[in-house]
Amino acid sequence: MWKLGNEWIRDHSPKFYLNRDFSPVILDHIEPAVYMDHWSVQPFNGQARRISSIFALADAFAPTHVIETGTYLGSSTPYLASVADGPTYTIEIEEHFATRARRRFEDNHPALQIELVLGDSARQIVNVLQRIPAQDSAVLAYLDAHWLDQIPTTSELLALESWGGCWMAIIDDFKVDGDEGFGFDQYGDVVIGPGIVPDIPDVQIWVPAQPSERETGAKRGTGYVFTASALARIPSHAFAGLRRVR
Ligand SMILES: C[S@@+](CC[C@H](N)C(=O)[O-])C[C@H]1O[C@@H](n2cnc3c(N)ncnc32)[C@H](O)[C@@H]1O
Fold first, then answer.
1. Which is the most buried residue in 4, 90, 123, 197, by most CB within 10 A?
2. Which range is least confidently modeled, 31-45, 142-156, 214-228?
3. Which of 13-17, 117-121, 175-179 bottoms out in mean pLDDT, i.e. has the lowest?
4. Which residue has a Cα nearest atom 26 of ligand 1?
5. How close is the Cα of 72 to the center of ligand 1, in Å?
6. Gap from CA of 4 to ligand 1 centroid (Å)
7. Pocket of ligand 1 contains residue 47 by CB under 6 Å
8. pLDDT at position 1, please?
9. Does the C-beta of 156 come closer than 6 Å to ligand 1?
10. Phi and psi for 245 in degrees, rounded to 5?
């Protein structure tokens, strides 16, 4: 019955008119092999080179825990959960997104250790980090909580630093100076870019080195932030395709 329904939707959907509002329908009722090429139903905005960099870095870093801020539909979360042995926490402020994503994780990815936390990531990341022992843990954070007036990214990075363990962070929609083809976000005067990364001693910022023409999907910029202890875990070959900006 459902299969018939899925096939009917796949064959009759007006593909050119599907926008973000239809994404939950696609995710819930159409098999992954026929997903539309829309950033919101693909992991990491459908950016193949970003995915390649993230997995090269994550495999070398070997995180014990993952934290995602800004779950939205949960399209990237299962991929993030696949890089850690321990739990993945994903924090979403909008209850309707959180409820649907939680149900999707339970239905589609029961084997993954994903915990959805409802609330403001600037506050909830502190609570999540309190549950992770700073010693012997390594946290990979994917910071993607925005769209509202307040950008929590700086607070999130400060929370990671205060936590005191080993961490690295990946920031979506990050301005890549020198390559206008990568999209970035700006809220009022605040540009998501190196300027919102606090001046933490020994922290390095890296961005894609390959030109945006070589990226796929939504072509949004990415910022990679490493603490000294994270850098010590990652061999240089994992940085292929990236360049250091701070
Ligand atoms: C770009 S979407 C996240 C996309 C998702 N990470 C992915 O890869 O598919 C941004 C999400 O952040 C959420 N958000 C915005 N501000 C937030 C905050 N302060 N705390 C938690 N979530 C927030 C929004 O409701 C939205 O669902």
1. 90
2. 31-45
3. 13-17
4. 72
5. 5
6. 33
7. no
8. 43
9. no
10. -115, -10
CATH 3.40.50.150 fits 37-244, yes or no: yes
Predicted confidence (pLDDT) at residue 43 exceeds the cutoff of 90: no
Q: Specify the amino acid at residue 183.
A: G
Locate CATH 3.40.50.150 in the chain. Answer: 37-244
Q: Which atom of ligand 1 is nearest to the CA of 44?
A: 8
Q: Is 224 left (phi over 0), alpha (psi -120 to 50) or beta?
A: beta
Task: Please name the residue whose Cα sits nearest to atom 17 of ligand 1.
Answer: 145
Q: Report whether pLDDT(209) > 70.
A: yes
Please report where in the chains the tokens 């329908």 appear, as a residue.
25
Structure tokens at 93: 């402020």
Q: Is 114 helix (H, G, I), strand (E, B) or coil?
A: strand
Q: Which of 239, 177, 242, 180 is nearest to 212 (CA)?
A: 180
59-95: per-residue pLDDT in tens?
Answer: 999 999 999 999 999 999 999 999 999 999 999 999 9
Q: 42 pLDDT exceeds 90?
A: no
The residue behind tokens 């605040």 is 190
Counting ligand 1 atoms within 8 A of each CB, the residue from 94, 95, 116 with the most, and so the one to mutate, is 94
Query: What distance in angstroms lies between residue 5's CA and the mean position of ligand 1's atoms?
Result: 30
